[in-house]
Amino acid sequence: MSILLCLLVVFSDSVDAVELGSGGIQITEQSPTAQVGGSLQFTLQLPGVVADDDQIIVTVHEPVVDEAEFLQSVNGQGLGGVLASRTVDLSDLEPDAWGLVAIEFPLTSTGDEAIRVARPGVYPITIEMRTASQELVGRVVTHLIRVGDEPSQRLPLALVVEIPYSLRSSDLPENSDAVSAWLNVLVDHPDIPVSVTLYPNLIDSASNEVAVEKFKGTKVRHELVRGPFIPIDEAALIDAGFNREVSTLLKMGADRLGILGTLSPSTLWVGHGIADAGQVDRRWQRGIREVIVEPSALSPVPVNAPRGPVELLGVESNVRALVIDQLSAKEEHDTAVSDAHRVLAHLATIAFTQQPKPLLVLDLSAGARGVDFARAFLRGLPHLDWVEPVSASTAITKSLLLKDGKLQQYQLRSRQRSEPEDFAGYREAQRHLTAFRSMIRDEDAAEHNELSQDLLFSLSSDSLQLDQRKLWESIVSHIRVQTSLIDIPPDESIQLTSQKASVPFSFQNRAEIPLRVELRIIGEKLTVEDFDDGESTTLVLEPGVTTHRFELRALGSGSFPVTIELHSPDGGLLVGRAQAAIRATTPTGVGLGLTIGAAVFLAVWWVVDTKRKKVLRP
Fold this sequence. Notes:
alpha/beta, Immunoglobulin-like, 7-stranded beta/alpha barrel, 5 domains, 5-stranded parallel sheet, elongated
């Protein structure tokens, strides 16, 4: 049931501030603004247990004169004089089965007893619930936003949002529901520009297909902030030497986001809680020149966030920045509607009372706020004629703030260091994958490519270290199993009956695809004439048994060891090793030459010696 409560003038002193406790009262619906001749409507959620003779008392106070007074009024403090008050019994409101009651306040401009909300402003309203004996059950504060003629100068407001990536899996329903909900809200408000940070791997979930297609098919003013395909600690990865991986993830992200909608400039980055000197410095190295950060990213944290573009100084960077304004905090008793309305009232207060107009940035997803808050806020924002939404990429190009004729500069906080991550397992898995890729054909690389993508995505900052290690170890184990399907000849003895001989070598490939390997035959007294470098050649082993013959040349006689090795063609992985014994029973060219030379020497020596003895004989 909806009750019309005419706002009557009550002449009384300002009410004293009392400790604010909602007592279970919540505002679930509320009209964002009101004008003379219109009405202020809201729906109350009453406590679970009420009595018919309980009362609702609604009081309207004088408008706040500045932002400081507004913030006091949020806590029920510093309220101005009472302009109007009305008391109604719950029995007259007739709550529904869920304890909801709808109340409407007409705002009239005629009559001796009518309240005249003649000038634009923000009017605090207290809503109290009391027992018949006037014992306070609960009390909440909201605000009436009285709008007027469209102003000559409006308050510029840039909106950013990060669609959450939660619970460490893009396949979980929580993630899919969040993405769809956010995209639907953004589509419902296409003319209010919002700069959106979204990890593209969330887009391809089947449960998001309808919302994604709807977003793609709607002309919107939103911009998608360029970023990696998955959430990463970019500074940590760059410092660990993963420049190529970071570049790959950034390109994947931009390519996928470009299909979804309009991309922000490549020079813009929104920190969403992770900005510090290290993160900004590393992004500056790849071309980031404008950033949007929270006040906590600055050192020291300013009492009041600068409301306009400023310069931020890192260790190696100097960037243009906007600092997100916290505005009114969410109260414990708030619904998304009452929370959003308070922020709207805060914006209206700034727009009504501050000259010149500052530039504000609001993060719709910050803190405990989410898609329901954003939905309520964006629904109410068009009613604030004094506020002009602008894109973040446009807002950040405005003139830098000056103080005493100098640019306002702030220092970024030092890098937030944590325990350094051990990437040895990642590199080992990467080495195995790279080696295996050199062993297979392009048409056989589907499984390899899938494993490589899994490995790349394991760099996500949302991944648990235990899960990372398990994946890395599983990749190494899998590649070792694949390479073990090649059988090298067992240890054996090879008989050479001549200086050079053609010797067969057989290899068995138990895989279902051809595998490419590098064969090395290593021995101090042996060369392989078929090998370009004398020690290795590349073989393609078809499934089954493959036999190759090679010309071996012995550099000596006798028995000596030879090592037979199979490697991946890139040299990164030893596939197999066996030992063989070479028995060379025929003299080599050098040995034969020495033997003949010795025989000639002995023959000459024998002839000379015989003649000498004959001469000496009497």
